[in-house]
Amino acid sequence: MSTAVEPDRPHSDAAPPVEVFWGVDCGSAEIKVVAIDREGRLLTTRKYRTLFPLVEHVHRSLAGHADELSAIIDSDRAALPPDGRQPSLRPGHKVFATGYGRHHIGFVQGQLTEIKAHYLGVQHQLGLQQDYTIIDIGGQDAKVIRATPGRVEKFAINRKCAAGTGAYIEELAHRLEVPMGELPRLAAAHDKDLTLNSYCTVFSGQEVIKLLMQGERVENLIHAMYRSVVKRVLEMTPIDTDTLVFSGGVMSHHSILMPLFAERFDAVRTLLAPNAQFCGALGAAIHGLNEESDNGLPNHQ
Amino acid sequence: MNVSSMDVGTVDVKQVMRNYFGDLDAAAKDPARKVAWCTSVGPAEILRAMGFAVYFPENHGALLGATRVSSDTIPLANAQGYSPEICSYLTSDIGACLKGVTPLTKAYGLDGVPRPDVLVYCTNQCKDVMHWFAWYARQWQVPLLGIHPPNHLPEVLPEHVADVASQFRRLITQLEAITGTPLDPAALRLAVARSREATDLWETVLNTARARPAPLSFFDSTILMGPIVVLRGTQTATDYYRALLAELQTKVTAGHAAVPGERLRIYWEGMPVWGRLRHLSDLFANNRAAVVASTYCNSWIFSDFDATRPLESMAQAYLKIFINRDDAYKEAYIERLAGEFGIDGVIYHAARTCPNNSNSSYNLPQRLAAKGIPGIVVDGDLCDLRCFSDEQSTTLIEAFLETL
User: Fold this and answer.
1) Which of A11, A74, B50, B290 could bridge B259 with an S-S bond, Cβ 3.0-4.6 Å?
2) Predicted ipTM?
């Protein structure tokens, strides 16, 4: 991926053509950043922990490190300007936001929901010609998006409880005292299909403790946890397409979920979106590119 | 609180409500007058005709929610054994009584809610009102009278009407024992006639939102509906809505938009989220979506009132309300309004503590979507903000509007 630094350019009255579109996905756990050029080609991806004040950390993620592509003019690169002033974006750069923090970044040129962003990110990369369903599991929510090649048709987001989301996996990993990165490997070593019944994260935790007390293997409990995630997501809305695309950070880190989803369907093609964790940020950038396209540039999906 | 985009120069709803509460307060302090508490779709016309000053605790519940006093008072009722899962009007209001607070003090200068001489409920909307009023009956040793209509009706049949009219007659006898004066039939006919006139005007007011752009939104209407809830059966309500209608018709002619740049037209199904009206009003307006129709505001349209047969027509009107009907009726109702108001999509508010006024749990959104009326379910509550997430609801609503 290119990380070339652009030279600072003098300000001029005529706005320069936009050359770099930045997408920022302000998630509950991580800030994901993507830059694309006006042809929709990916220039860079970055990921930071979500910390607060959010706007400062988004600014830092857009500035990047030394010698990296930056959306921010060098004089503002080190930190946000004082007194609440907006940072200076490089001429020819525009920033678009998605994710739960999207309304809290004052200096972006536009924002869109994660639903539309993930759809745009997936469709841009895969160019699917048939109807399909995206399953995006994030830190604090899970989404099922029914899409056509041209639009989001309908969607569902998990209601009320975090069960079935990244927060659920984190909580159970904590209860089991297993590092997150170890979970997929341990689940693969299961020798029994167990079922966790509750759809409440806290009650699931209690169920896990009870099973541990009864001498159940940790591997089987982790596998049951993944199966529980699949069940929770599939309860949200019927899946009626032949193609299932996975996006989001949880899917990219817990690839064992893909076959668990796939085994619930006959003859359904399952795909992991390229740059799965960055689909939302990429979609935000594509949204920006499309906004520009309304001024004459080609329309990217 | 002001979420209304209405310019209320000539038609001041706040003044109408201020006068109403002032009179209630005076009645409560006057030994010669009597105060009745009544549920919001209860037989107010009978009470008015018998000279009671009528107070509606659900209006108080909405005020507790809108001022967010509920957040402090609900837990007090919960601790007394009133579950967090039951009506949060009930828990807000009982908690407020336990704490000795009311937003009526700040809004209208009342020391407290007006003490009742009698409590009259009607379970056409839910059973929680019965439990709610029963608490006050025990607390203050006040007579408790109830109307128990048949519920969830596919259609309202003559035997249903006869049943409820008969219950009204028994209620009148019980009330006469409290007032010591027989009901004047002419006074009842007058109250029903006034209610009919006011409710017809209210319907016409709401129907002005069929215009494109709509001159008022659901969020305006939740404020403007005050008089049709608390002043049914009075000339004041009729005068107010006649003036309001004239103002709205002028706005329609002038092309005034409640939501500038109106792009989408939305139906709100279910209760308002009283503590987040401003937030939601801004959210829709920022997306150039006008919420132009709702089940909730339409619930005070009683087209069956007929002064020539007051009790039977009241029975018919209070039986036929949306909340007391079966799902097939509700589906046809929303479908009809979606057509009449040019609706692009429906927001179904699943109010945690109000299952009776939440209609997304039995596949209704999916059935209407199959008929080309898309919708999204938003979890929340009328008063209990512990059940409502700003972030999740914002994403849901914005993403839904993006799909339309």
Assistant:
1) B290
2) 0.86
